[in-house]
Amino acid sequence: MGIKAIVLEDVSDEWVILKVTSEGISIDTTDKILEKGNYEAGELLRQEYGNKVGLMTLGQAGENKYSVSTIAISDTEGRPVRHAGRGGLGTVMGSKKIKAIVIDPKNAEGITIKDKEAFKKASKAFTKMLLDHPVCGEGLPTYGSSILVNILNESGGLPTGNFR
Q: Between these two residues, 86 and 52, which has the higher pLDDT value?
């Protein structure tokens, strides 16, 4: 859609939904999704905007600006299972009174791949590299992301002690 970033500068008087389309950004009311959890809000938003939209939603923790709140991001099946939370992102979105961001890619140009064959070749090489790596190819499929805890801890990547 040609959008690199959206900067949210002011606070709304009412809770709102931001809808991002190829034509621009609009603001909708949140009456039916306010005080709803991410799953229920997602279902209601897909009923209104369609199943092809991407969703970023706040649950009740974000509405109440709890410091541990996250922004739930829908996966390709519409489930709000990816969470952006470090740094209090849900709290920030809640402080702006934005309950949800709906991204509707309809009529968007999409990404043009200049050299499709080179892209396929690079993609296959990258996939092979990941699958051949013991952590990515064996550890993650067997044990899930918990296998990364020791690696992240040793590199100082866990948010404990304020990343110290």
A: 52
